[in-house]
Design goal:
Serine Threonine Protein Phosphatase 5, Tetratricopeptide repeat; about 70% helix; about 0% strand; globular
Length: about 280
């Protein structure tokens, strides 16, 4: 599974109330139309968007590594810096410190003038956006993501996966329909773009258009039968339509083939619900 697909996949598991808090405009099942998204009750919204802070601890060995890596980012050449960034981001992300990863990527690579560096910064900001603790932080990271992805797309407009990811940052802004329009632009140029099909299918689920979601995820399956994240979402759409046999078949396929524990946990939860209410 591609890394960016996994980011969306893990984030979307909040759809079943298991792990994370995605932007509500994406996954609020009570909303019927994306462009008419209603405001949540302030108290409810506060409890969702301001979760209890998680205490993060580092072992003595990890602290030593972080200190060494940060010194290396100052004194090393570009190739070594990229290697250090990969190591540092792996540690930070394992502790859900996505904003820290984004800060260090931007601080290290923002002076670079190549497309790859802009995409790397954009990817880090994109993660921070998805896992932001509140709307203000999400808005800041969305702006950063758009800033660096746009720079990359100006030089290489053929980076359609980047454009499909950038589209999702519009869902929390003033014009969420821009997300749909941007994804449609990607699909006009590449009707088989997996990232765009996955994202637009997710938006169909969000807006309660489950038949459309099924259509889009089934198309994704025909393009890549081993896109298990798309199969997972297809199972969700079938569940919402009351097609329990089809949903169970999807979830069982994912369970046999997917290796990410967060997604497997969500699958088990769905299968349990389907067995209780066959």
């Amino acid at each position: 599974m591609k890394q960016q697909q996994l980011i969306i996949g893990i984030a979307a598991i909040v759809f079943v109330g298991i792990l994370y808090s995605l932007p509500k405009v994406l996954l609020n099942k009570e909303e019927k139309e994306l462009e008419n998204t209603a405001q949540l009750d302030k108290k409810e919204k506060s409890s969702i968007l301001h979760p209890t802070p998680v205490q993060v601890s580092f072992s003595a060995s990890e602290k030593s590594k972080v200190q060494k890596w940060k010194l290396g980012l100052v004194s090393s050449n570009s190739r070594i810096k990229l290697s250090i960034l990969d190591s540092l981001s792996s540690l930070y992300n394992s502790k859900s410190l996505y904003d820290s990863t984004a800060f260090v990527f931007e601080g290290t690579l923002s002076s670079f003038s190549d497309v790859d560096s802009w995409v790397k910064i954009g990817d880090a900001c994109y993660k921070a956006y998805y896992f932001a603790a509140n709307d203000d932080k999400a808005a800041d990271w969305a702006t950063k993501t758009q800033q660096y992805y746009s720079k990359a797309l100006e030089k290489k407009p053929e980076l359609l996966d980047v454009k499909a990811r950038m589209a999702m940052t519009y869902t929390r802004g003033q014009n969420p329909m821009k997300a749909v329009m941007t994804l449609r632009e990607v699909l006009e140029k590449d009707p088989k773009n997996e990232q765009a099909l996955l994202n637009i299918g997710l938006l169909s689920v969000q807006s309660g258009q489950f038949e459309k979601a099924v259509e889009r995820f089934k198309k994704l399956q025909t393009i890549n039968p081993e896109n298990w994240l798309g199969t997972f979402y297809l199972g969700i759409a079938y569940t919402e339509l009351g097609k329990k046999n089809e949903a169970k078949e999807c979830f069982e396929k994912v369970k046999r083939n997917e290796k990410q524990p967060q997604i497997l946990e969500a699958v088990d939860d769905y299968l349990k619900q389907l067995s209780v209410n066959p």
